């Protein structure tokens, strides 16, 4: 029987056009696609899990066979709990391949029968990463072509929080 449910796991900090493109293309290949937002990735995050889920939901809500939800623990366990046998990942550059290959082998070892399908990014999104977007935005650059408007707005809120925090720190250091 062909697989009907697939999981697209990642940190999505924040969701951007590269992720959205992969999710929409994968949703055409399966009956249901679960965009699974990993709650505690091993990297510095700007957005909380709840915020990352909300931003991804707003970006993909129009696609009826896509569900966005948070998860923790092993990806294979989460996939199994949702009846999925396929993990979808995106490939941007050659260097992504090595990591994805390693993860695919590991996940298959943990859960025999769990397949990983990698979709190639579109050329225009090949350079896009969450870290690049955060860095450009926090330094005052324009990210309007990289993320949907609601994500741009969320980034603006974070930047305002950060500068508010900077001001408070400056005030404290002036006082001391
Ligand atoms: P991770 O922390 O697992 O790398 P990300 O949120 O960065 O998670 O990405 C989730 C998935 O989306 C990964 O498979 C990643 O390769 C893919 N991805 C990220 N950016 C792009 C992009 N610009 N084009 C295609 N796929 C992408």
What does this structure look like?
The chain has helices spanning 17-27, 49-60, 75-81, 94-110, 130-138, 149-175; strands at residues 5-10, 32-38, 66-71, 86-91, 115-120. With 176 residues, it is α/β, with parallel strands linked by helices. It has two domains: 2-125, Rossmann fold, CATH 3.40.50; 130-172, no CATH class. Strand 4, helix 4 (94-110) and strand 5 (115-120) form a beta-alpha-beta unit. The longest helix is centred in the last third of the chain and has 27 residues, at 149-175. The chain starts with a strand and ends with a helix. It binds adenosine-5'-diphosphate. Adenosine-5'-diphosphate is lined by residues 10-12, 18-19, 22, 41, 89-90, 92, 96, 121, 125, 128-130. Adenosine-5'-diphosphate (ADP) binds next to helix 1 and strand 4.
What topology does this entry show?
Layout: E1 5-10, H1 17-27, E2 32-38, H2 49-60, E3 66-71, H3 75-81, E4 86-91, H4 94-110, E5 115-120, H5 130-138, H6 149-175
Parallel strand pairs: 1-2, 1-4, 2-3, 4-5
Task: Compose a concise summary of this entry.
By secondary structure, the chain is an alpha/beta fold. The protein has helices at residues 17-27, 49-60, 75-81, 94-110, 130-138, 149-175, and strands spanning 5-10, 32-38, 66-71, 86-91, 115-120.
What is the CATH topology assignment of the largest domain?
Answer: Rossmann fold
Instruction: Please state the structural category.
Output: alpha/beta
Averaged pLDDT = 92
Strand content: 15-25%
**For the CA atoms, what is the radius of gyration?**
18 Å
CATH superfamily of the largest domain: HUPs
Reported CATH architecture of the largest domain: 3-Layer(aba) Sandwich
- How many β-strands, per DSSP? 5
CATH class of the largest domain, named: Alpha Beta
Helix content: 40-55%
Strand order of the largest sheet: 3-2-1-4-5
């Amino acid at each position: 029987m062909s697989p009907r449910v697939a999981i697209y796991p990642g940190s999505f900090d924040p969701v951007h056009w590269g992720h959205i493109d992969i999710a929409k293309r994968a949703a055409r290949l399966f009956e249901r696609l679960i965009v699974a937002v990993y709650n505690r990735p091993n990297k510095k995050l700007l957005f909380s899990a709840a915020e990352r889920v909300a931003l991804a939901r707003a970006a993909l809500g129009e696609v009826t066979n896509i569900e966005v939800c948070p998860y923790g623990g092993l990806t294979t366990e989460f996939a199994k709990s949702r009846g999925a046998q396929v993990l979808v990942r995106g490939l941007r550059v050659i260097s992504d391949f090595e990591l994805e290959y390693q993860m695919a082998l590991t996940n298959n070892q943990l859960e025999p029968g769990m397949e990983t399908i990698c979709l190639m990014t579109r050329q225009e999104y090949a350079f896009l990463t969450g870290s690049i977007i955060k860095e450009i935005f926090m330094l005052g650059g324009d990210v309007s072509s990289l993320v949907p408007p609601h994500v741009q707005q969320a980034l603006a809120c974070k930047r305002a929080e950060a500068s508010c925090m900077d001001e408070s720190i400056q005030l404290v250091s002036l006082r001391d």
